[in-house]
Amino acid sequence: MSFLVTIISFIIVFGVLVTVHEYGHMFFAKRAGIMCPEFAIGMGPKIFSFRKNETLYTIRLLPVGGYVRMAGDGLEEPPVQPGMHVKIKLNEQEEITHIILDDQHKFQQIEAIEVKQCDFKDGLFIEGVTPYDQERHRYTIAKESYFVENGSLIQIAPRDRQFTYKKPYQKFLTLFAGPLFNFLLTLVLFIGLAYYQGTPTNSIEKVMKDSPAAHAGLKAGDTIVKIDNNNISSRKDIDDAVEKIANKSTKITVERDGKKQTMNIKPKKVEQKVTKTKTQTRYILGYESSTEHTLFKPIASGIERTLVAGKLIFTAIVSMIASIFTGHFSFDMLNGPVGIYHTVDSVVKTGIINLISWTALLSVNLGLMNLLPIPALDGGRILFVIYEAIFRKPVNKKAETTIVAIGAVFVLIIMVLVTWNDIQRYFL
């Protein structure tokens, strides 16, 4: 039963993170007029699909990512290549309206052609030899035209619907939208948790046994109003004051039964592991805060927690990159799908609230990792767009395709190594 719960939780967490990220790309792409032939969750063989308008939505077997296929983004390969024999249907202007790649449609008045040359991005034409006259003909592809394949009509994108021919700011927004939506997901999850749990106050709900608060004589129901010389009106004021004091002895003033009482307290120093390679020093009093449910405080709390999470993950990523140059890098710093599954298995046992909080952290991590300047990732492709905006011309297409391909191979190799490392750590 526990195994089943972990599997379901993993699928939900993975599905939500990837769906939100890829939907961000597609949301801005479609608003820029870019055609999106496919929206995929997962990689590898297709296990489920449906078509809505011009987009095919698919779920694929391997939970190692997802993608939005955008027309003219340099990553898609057209199904027609030189040397192929296909059938075409022409309109009255002798333009191609359908390129037929199967026998599942009963089109009338079609022609066979052996493709010698074709361009589905810039020139939008097919040139080839027709069997009836053995002559070479060149046909323009109509503005509204389709590939006919596997019983489906797949629209061929005209130039004005392709990523390549959009303005730099439209390309930038489309690429940045994936990480942006991950950050927004983190914000929504933290705000939702704050509304559900309430926001902490400066009153005490429970005092932990053998804690500094217990030794000082604090009790449930006390309201902390002063620490050292710092006036207190919120939980954040308490946290800030305790961090200033560190583990030194100081005075704390509470309000109990309408009267103020002052006592001595010494915060306890704790080392908390926040990432695989980073620990955080904190000072605690050892109590649980009372919470309150208000209309606007959860929003502020969600924003604050999102910023703290972003700072935490960003610092961890910078430390990881720095470790490459200092010789302290280890694949233990990274988690692949296997590592994420193992973490889900641990977190889900502590309850749904912790799983949601962890998902929020993972979402901001996914957003920041995708902004790394690696060619196959969003950050690397954004660099190409920035180059185009500065120099008023796009990067050489052949060079860009080669660089992105090298980046994709690099990411794939890293993913394989990380996955193997996770398998060795957790299962061997």
Overview of the molecule:
The protein has about 425 residues and is α+β, with helices and mostly antiparallel strands. The protein has three domains: about 1-35 and about 165-200 and about 295-428, no CATH class; about 85-160, no CATH class; about 200-290, Roll (Pdz3 Domain), CATH 2.30.42.10. It has helices spanning about 1-30, 170-195, 210-215, 235-245, 295-325, 335-350, 350-370, 380-390, 395-425; strands spanning about 40-50, 55-70, 85-90, 95-100, 110-120, 125-130, 135-150, 150-155, 200-205, 225, 230, 250-255, 260-265, 270-275, 280-285, 285-290. A five-stranded mixed barrel has the order 3-4-7-6-5. Strands 11-10-12-13 form a four-stranded antiparallel sheet. It has a two-stranded antiparallel ribbon with strand order 1-2. Helix 1 packs across helix 6 and helix 2 packs across helix 8 (about 380-390). One of its GO terms (molecular function) is metal ion binding.
DSSP summary: helix tally = 9
Kindly provide the radius of gyration, computed on alpha-carbon positions and rounded to a whole number of angstroms.
29 Å
Please, what is the average pLDDT? 89
What is the number of domains? 3
Helical proportion, percent range:
40-55%
SS strand fraction: 25-35%
Q: What about the largest sheet?
A: 5 strands, mixed, barrel
The spatial strand order of the largest sheet comes to 3-4-7-6-5
The secondary structure category is alpha+beta
Give me the strand/helix succession.
HEEEEEEEEHEHEEHEEEEEHHHHH
Separation, N- and C-terminal Cα atoms = 23 Å
In terms of per-residue confidence, which ranges show pLDDT below 50 for 5 or more consecutive residues?
none
Protein name: Zinc metalloprotease
Pfam families: PDZ_6, Peptidase_M50
Family: Belongs to the peptidase M50B family.
InterPro entries: PDZ (IPR001478), PDZ_6 (IPR041489), PDZ_sf (IPR036034), Pept_M50_Zn (IPR004387), Peptidase_M50 (IPR008915)
